[in-house]
TrEMBL record:
CDD domains: GT4_WbuB-like. Residues 218-385 form the Glycosyl transferase family domain. It comes from the Bacteria. SUPFAM superfamilies: UDP-Glycosyltransferase/glycogen phosphorylase. InterPro entries: Glyco_trans_1, Glyco_trans_4-like_N, Glycosyltransferase_grp1. Keywords: Glycosyltransferase, Transferase. This is Glycosyltransferase family 4 protein. Residues 21-204 form the Glycosyltransferase subfamily 4-like N-terminal domain. It holds the Pfam family Glyco_trans_4_4.
Length: 417
């Protein structure tokens, strides 16, 4: 039976956000009549995309889905004040204007990043009795405070109280709460959310990304990388949260081997890392910058080992970066420099190794071990990576779990409408 589902998310294509779009399309395949309630596209530049006006609501059809866009103050820079206004203006406009979408829905699914996306469903739930399922992508206030967006002292303490109270209210109001990592579930239980209300559903990745194992040399030639030797790759944001000093400095302990450490991406920490490498005269680290999406298969094919790196912060211990799923699905060996959930997946899957953050010598030792692995053992790890993804993290597994939660919420709480 078809379920009328309102998908509430501040971010949606044409913004470069694949997860919300994939969720909406996957639910459509499972007989949900999905209507998207989202914002005027302005990510990642903080400027309204061509054809859109930030203060004017609009309606369009995208991928066959009805998409309602509500006004906001466009911003995505380092200014805490402007980012807060961005979140709050969309939360307010979606609450004032989104009631018509929620009123004609059996259930709502909220993509909680930022947490303020839940304001409209939580407020309108009492009036319309439309239940909602909340997908917690980021823990608030932890993620906001750890980012340094809000300063320290009184302002930080006040923000912690307000954001914690707001987030807890949205958890209580939700019919079901979805978390994307096991550690996140533990945090929410400690904050008073009923364990029976929480379900783990990993984000999935764009599938059919498997690296072409027959063309590594061709891929390396395309990217101007060494044709021979062992290539260790980090691809993604280059920021303080990734703490890539550890990986880069590990290369100093591998200069006796044909090992090249590749960093593909951009971010606030890139220039500092480049200076770090130049000052030490390191020749076995390459910075490729941000690659276009069409070159990512070549980068995967060129790599012998792919890296996830996280700073040593309690918040990141309960974080599951989307690149974990992308690496596993592509059938690559994995090194997680960090602690917590991502490290557990690397070990539990049999796909790779872990190393402690902040310890370049330990990272180098793991990479050295990976270079010595026999071909058959390497192939076994690559197969284990794909098997683990298909069993625990695939689109099929995740979308079916969301489908069941939404139908349960609609049947249990929607029956009283």
């Amino acid at each position: 039976m078809s379920v009328r589902t309102a998908f509430v998310t501040q971010w949606y294509p044409p913004e470069p956000v694949e997860v919300p779009r994939s969720i909406a399309l996957a639910l459509t395949d499972l007989d949900h009549d999905v209507v998207v309630a989202t914002g005027i596209p302005n990510y990642p530049d903080g400027v309204a995309h061509a054809g859109h006006t930030s203060w004017r609501r609009s309606r369009e059809t995208l991928d066959g889905l009805e998409v309602h866009r509500y006004p906001l103050f466009p911003s995505h820079d380092q200014s805490a004040a402007r980012r807060i206004v961005n979140y709050l203006t969309w939360a307010a406009s979606s609450t004032a204007l989104g009631w018509s979408v929620l009123r004609r829905s059996d259930v709502a699914l909220v993509y909680s990043s930022p947490a303020t996306a839940a304001l409209a469903p939580a407020l309108w739930r009492r009036a319309m009795r439309t239940p909602y399922v909340l997908i917690v992508q980021d823990l608030w206030p932890e993620s906001v405070l750890s980012s340094g967006m809000i300063g320290k002292g009184f302002v930080s303490r006040l923000a912690d109280r307000i954001l914690r109270a707001f987030s807890n209210w949205t958890y209580r109001s939700a019919a079901e709460v979805v978390v994307i990592s096991p550690g996140m579930r533990k945090v929410l239980v400690e904050r008073g959310v009923s364990p029976e209300k929480i379900t783990l559903v990993y984000n999935w990745t764009a599938e059919r990304q498997s690296a072409d194992g027959d063309r590594p040399r061709e891929a390396r030639r395309e990217l101007s990388l060494p044709l021979d030797g062992f290539i260790v790759t980090y691809a993604g944001n280059v920021g303080t949260a990734q703490a890539l000093d550890t990986l880069v400095l590990a290369a100093r302990h591998l200069e006796d081997l044909e090992v090249t450490v590749v960093v593909a991406g951009d971010g606030v920490d890139l220039s500092r890392l480049q200076s770090l490498v130049a000052d030490r005269g390191m020749k076995n680290v390459r910075f490729l910058g941000r690659l276009p999406a069409e070159q990512m298969p070549a980068l995967r094919a060129a790599s012998d080992l792919q890296v996830v790196s996280l700073a040593d912060d309690p918040l990141f211990a309960v974080t599951m970066p989307s690149k974990v799923q992308a690496i596993l699905e592509s059938g690559s060996r994995l090194l997680v420099i960090g602690r917590g959930d991502a490290a557990h997946v690397a070990e539990a899957s049999g796909a790779g190794w872990t190393a402690p953050p902040g310890d370049p010598e330990a990272v180098a030792a793991v990479i050295r071990l990976a270079t010595l692995e026999p071909p058959q053992a390497a192939l076994a790890r690559e197969k284990a990576a794909q098997d683990y993804y298909q069993t625990h993290m695939s689109r099929e597994i995740g979308s079916q779990a969301l489908d069941q939660l939404l139908r349960r919420a609609a049947a249990r709480e929607g029956s009283t409408r």
